[in-house]
Structures are given as C-alpha cells and as structure tokens.
C-alpha cells in the first residue's frame, strides 16, 4: 500500500504509516473532514467509515466542533476556529471550494499530500499539506494561505492543523507546566468539557508550557493503551486548544501566535504555518515518547548521528569575572577531568561586570582579554578540547554603546515605558537590518576566533511588542521575529559547517521542534539541582530525546536551592542526557576530582547508549521510591540503567526493576560485576539494583550481551569516534 492513497469512488484519502492510518474526505458542504486516526486500515475499509449525509443541523447545536481538518469561522460553527480571516469588505466567514489534490514523493521514503481549496467568493487560496515518512508513525501537517486578489486580507488566526480523536468514553490530557527553574513538570488530568487552552503569549516558547500534548482515553499507562499526541515546531508565541464537545468527542487545534495578533496578508503574499506533527499509538505513553525521540533524531536534528561531547561551562566557577589567566587555569583542570568542550559563559565582552551593562557590545573586553579571545581559544585547543562561547544576540542593556547609538532598535511603543527585565530590552529581530547586524558580528566572531560552539541564550520575554516604524509592524512582529531568528542561525551554520549550537532561554524557555531543527542540544533549565532535575528531565523526555538534553554537574550547596547531595548522585542525574560539568574545579578536593574523572570516563563508555539508544522510563519520579531510566542500543546489544532514590523509608524492600526491550533469547553480563543474567529473567522478573544506603542514593547498571563481551564489546559505540568528539 502506498503511504498516501486516494479512492475516487468514496472520495477518501488515506495516509498510512508503519502502524497507523489517517483518513479524511470532503463532505457535502465542500469542507475537508476527518474520518479516522488509529490502527492501520486498508483503503477499502477506510471507505466504510464515510458517514451518511448529515441531516438538518440543530438550530441550537450547529456543526460539531470536532471532525473538520481545519475548522473555519463561518456558517453554524461555534467551536474554536483554526482559520479566521477578515476580507477587505469586512466579511469574516470562509466557505470551502475544493480545487484538487496532489500526491508526490518529496524525498526517498517521504510522501506528501496537498489538498487545494479556495474561498467560494473571495480571493484566498488555502492548501492543507500532509507529510508521511516511511520510518515513523508521525504525520506532519501545515497550511499555506495565499492572497490571490488585489486587496489586503487580515488573518486573525491561522493554525497549522486540527486533529480529531476517535470517539471514546473518556479523555485525559498530558502536558507540562512550570516556570523559570521549574520547567517541564508533567501533569495528567481529565479533559473537561468545553475548551482547554495551552499557550505562550511571551514571544518565546516559554518556561510555563511547551507546545505539545498527549491525549488518551483515561486508561493508558506507560506500557499500554491508546495515546494521541502532537507537537508544534514553532519558537515564538503559540496556542493549542483542546475541545471536548457536548456529544463526547475530542479534538485539538494549534498553531503560531496568540489571540489579538493579526497577520496582514497583502496582494500576492503567501503565509505558511509551522509544522504541527502528530502520531497515534496503542502501546502507551512510553511508546509515544520513543516514537517522538526517533522522529526527532531522524527528521528534526541537523546532525543526529553525532555523539555530543562532555562539556564544561565556566559560569558557576567564575560568574562575570572572566579573564585570560583564570580561564586558562580552569581549562587545564577541565581537560584533566576528561572534558572535551570548554565553554566560556557570560562576562567576556566589553563593559560586562554584571547583568546591568554591556549586552550589545560584542567585542572581547580589552582589560580582561587584552589580546582578545585568540590566546584562550588556542590554549583550549592545545589542551585537546573544543572552544565554546556564551552569546545573547537578541538582547541589549540600556547601559551599552549599542543602545545609546540605536535606542529605536528595541521593541517599544511610543509614549510607553520600556519595561526592563533583568536590566535588558529585546532587540527587534523582526527588522531585517537588526537581524543582518546580528548575523554580521556573529559570523565574524566565529570565523576570527575559531569558535566551535555557541550557547545561544535569551533571558527575557517580550514586552511593549511594537514596531513604531511600520503601520502593520505590531502584527508582523510575532512571526517575522521568529523567521529572522531562524534565518540568522541557518546562515551562521551554512557559513561555519563545523559550528554547533545550544538553544537556551534562561533555561528551558525556548525548546521546541522548530529551534531543534537548527540546533544541536537544548538547555532544559537554569536549575542544576540534581534532585529537581529528575522531575524536569522526566517531563523533557516525554517528547525530546536524551541526545539533545544538556545536563550539568554543579557544586553544592546548590546556588539556587541550597540543597546538598552527593557528587555521585549529581553525576548519575546528569548522565541521563548530554553530560556537562559546571562546578568550580579549583575548589574540588582530590577525592572529588578523582571520583569526577572516573564518572566522566564511565559516561564516555556508555554515552552511545544514552544519546543514540531507545529510552524506557522504568519508574517515574516519586517521593518514597526510586526513579529509573533504561537506555538500550537499537541492536539490543547494550543496556544502561540509571537509578536515583531520594529518601528511602525504613523497612522498605529494595526496588525490583523489570527491564524492557531486550533480546529475549540473549544473556547479558554486568560490565561491573561480571554477573550474567538471562534476558527473560531481567524482563519477566527483574533485577534489584545495589543502591547505597542513606538519602540521595544512586547507581547505574551497564549490561552487555554475552557474545559481545567475548568480542570486546566495551569500546566506543558505532556513532562515536575513539576520541568521543563530534567530527
């Protein structure tokens, strides 16, 4: 069966993935309508789902809010619209007129469908796009609007897609909420009748929510049950609206922007929404997460096969006190620890003594770095490490030469106070000249100094989001800002193919599929407390893979929470993603340094499993029991398990972990003890990890299939060069 097929007799389009099917058709009014989204169907069977022609619509109910591929504002529709426009004559309703469809292979293993429509009277063309990859159950959708007339059209809302679930007795929603330093806290609760809105109005993805959701029938678990999930590839303001209708159905719609921000569409202009990807599984939340991880690795990240190096960041060691001598000394210690990428954080540029000044003046401070960055970069490279640098290109301090020269460059409204957050203002990246300025100094900085890595930060949300120089600027700003940001990053990477970038926004304020398609890893939170990180990383893993999750080992008492936990526990938590160190190495004791070097070396032996393996959340975060995560190589030859426990109750039996996804006929040997375990015992009856006694205990387990141990299977994984560095 083709990935996308059409039956002229029934008028049904069928999208087929490896395990699922998605079907729709045009109804008698001309509107594109949903038929099915669930287990795989043949095309003939999908045709049987076409309902009889609807009877007269109730004068009180109208059309159901669920069931259309892109609900519009018009007719007897009273649910949340996905498309709202205002034409030049003031008309707001849209009426569908179907023009045709196109099915094409856009790349090997990738098939696309375009359903083409126009308004029955006004000059607006709407094309619904669908994309299916052979290797994933994820379906990508987006919408393109085109003004075919001679007068402007106001786009009041243009969602990427709407998705309708199969009828079930009940529904439950899973999503994340939080705030700065407490991002990604997963919530799972019943879907109320009416509308549930998840959104960011901040101009960034936000710390407070993330543009994804999962819906189930109220009975799904980590390992079983139907789950429908979706994620939006957009790094600005966004909204998702879940609807539970009076007749018991559920659907959701989502896209860029937020209420109140109109998008002008001039004559001949076209607007393409961001991708809104979604998938169905009948194997529970864990299978949904693993499908998303595989999708991100296969179709989102620019260099998914690379193994991320162990990173050191100077922030907690030096703060703003950056100078050549101290950074060289710190780099020498980092190299001895086994670090492969050394990153100088905030404080390296002109006028930067604290967070009140200097942003915008992106040149090395001549007093602290009298010869520029060159000697420091050269020394870091001599030590065998790559060199990285912290930047915040979208921001400016009022106390800076840039702001004094260009006060009009920031987001602002005339005659309104310019709100300073963290003593800084937001540069208007929607302006092409400002985006070009940022691209210019960034590409020179990287080229002139041999920079290998940028930590791209963004430490505040929008305020006074105006563009006084343009009459329609306020409305254009929200989308053009993000597109220009993407363009700067894309051009920078094209100029410097070896450059790698971490997305950061005061922690996890800008993590989404859009920014991940042009960066290499993400900073989930400014909170480096290992205890808090267990929950933050659990929420992060619902959609995003360990391969992109930067995780630091920092000093205690923790700078944010004042909590102290053992170094071993801190390392084990950070080993669940891309390991990094952020402590003041000059003050580590010889014992701490030796233990740290040993754990860094251990991580290098297993990181190919963590970063490229298949993740199973064996136990989620709980107050009185352990949390455990398993990673398995795709060929099932190696397994790595991490276990953390906060404060075990007296008399509580030791936890038994049933592993998952192993070769059932294989035997696995513990790389530390040599004990051999049958896979059938590990998965059917479990293993009891040897946790140290006391609070904040942790351990790890590395299992290697016996035949691979005999062949010397403890070397670097197939994704990793012998040095462990990215190529």
Tell me what the structure shows.
- With 727 residues, the chain is an alpha+beta fold.
- It contains 14 helices and 37 strands.
- The strands form 7 sheets. Strands 6, 7, 8, 9, 12, 13, 15, 16, 20 and 21 form a 10-stranded antiparallel beta sheet that branches.
- Strand 7 and strand 8 form a beta hairpin.
- The radius of gyration is 27 Å and the shape is globular.
- The two termini are 39 Å apart.
- The model is unreliable at 711-727 (pLDDT under 50).
Low-confidence runs: 711-727
What does the main sheet amount to? 10 strands, antiparallel
Question: Helix- and strand-based class?
Answer: alpha+beta
Count of helical stretches: 14
Q: How confident is the prediction overall: mean pLDDT?
A: 94
Distance between the termini: 39 Å
The shape is globular
Helix coverage percent: 10-25%
Extended strand count = 37
In percent, how much strand structure appears in the residues?
25-35%
Query: How large, in whole angstroms, is the Cα Rg?
Result: 27 Å
